[in-house]
Amino acid sequence: MGTLFIIATPIGNLEDLTFRALRTLKEASFVLCEDTRVTKKLLNHYGVTTPVLSYHQHSSQKTSEHVFELLSQGKNLALVTDAGTPGISDPGNELIDYLLERKPSLNIVPIPGASAVPTIASVAGFLMDKFLFLGYPPHKKGRKKFFEEVAQASHPVIFYESPYRVIKSLTELRLLMPQANVVVGRELTKKFETTYRGAIDQVLEMVQKDKVKGEFVVIVSKP
Fold first, then answer.
1. Using CA atoms, how far apart are residues 143 and 65, in angstroms rounded to an integer?
2. What is the rounded CA–CA span in Å between residue 53 and residue 196?
3. CATH superfamily for domain 3-111
4. Which ranges of 122-192 does DSSP label H, i.e. alpha helix?
5. What does the domain layout of the chain look like in residue ranges?
6. Is 170 left (phi over 0), alpha (psi -120 to 50) or beta?
């Protein structure tokens, strides 16, 4: 039986790939990835010629069965996400759950690296020994409940947001938490990386004045 390696990849800056991750990507029989075009950019940058297979949130059970068959043949596989650590706001754990049901003794090896959550937490500027991570807010159904949970949390809350909804999310939070302190990271580790910090009114104004592009990660803390 082969081994499934869960590999964290850069969230923006390609230099953030670890030596161990690079070696494993080169040695694996296949790389399972969300978007083959995105992953091939990373692999090509490092001269990795390992073939890629698509695995994402819309993959069928046949894809999972094929992955199990490859492992059963003794092939070592590397699972990556488009950016960051698989299994965090990502369908990687669905595949792992399926594989463990089929083979509880399957060897699954995590290879740690970049993730937007600890990256933004490391520059928060306030106590982050305890925090709550909630992934992405729902687009419609459950959105109000999501932000109520943020407002009621006793520890800082981290969540992801897209450029299309970040202003809307901060506006909704301001209504529930007018005294909140927030840290917003945009395009972390990339060329135009920006960190906004301060009272929620101030940060909302800064984000509105700036170019709302790229991926965002938000920390919300009560004063």
1. 34
2. 38
3. Tetrapyrrole methylase, N-terminal domain (3.40.1010.10)
4. 143-152, 166-176
5. 3-111, 116-221
6. alpha
Measured CA to CA, the distance from residue 90 to residue 82 in angstroms comes to 9
Q: Which residues contact 99 (CB under 8 A, 6 or more apart)?
A: 4, 64, 67, 68, 71, 106, 108
CA distance linking residue 217 with residue 188, whole number of Å: 9
**pLDDT value, residue 63:** 87
* CB contact at 8 A, 38 and 82: yes
The pLDDT score that the predictor gives to residue 110 is 97
Q: Check: CB of residue 215 under 8 Å from CB of residue 187.
A: yes
Name the residue with tokens 């161990």: 20
List, for residues 46-71, the tens digit of each pLDDT value: 999 999 998 877 677 888 899 999 99
* 156 phi, psi to nearest 5 deg: -55, 145
**Letter for the amino acid at 53?**
L
Q: Name residues whose C-beta falls within 8 Å of residue 211's C-beta, 6 or more positions apart in sequence.
A: none
pTM: 0.90
Tell me how far apart the alpha carbons of residues 8 and 97 are, in angstroms, rounded to a whole number: 18
Contact by Cβ (8 Å): 15, 120: no
Q: Confidence class of residue 77 from pLDDT cuts 50, 70 and 90?
A: very high
**SS3 call for 63:** helix
The CATH number of the domain covering residues in 116-221: 3.30.950.10
14: which DSSP letter? G
- Give the side-chain half-sphere CA count within 13 A for 37: 0
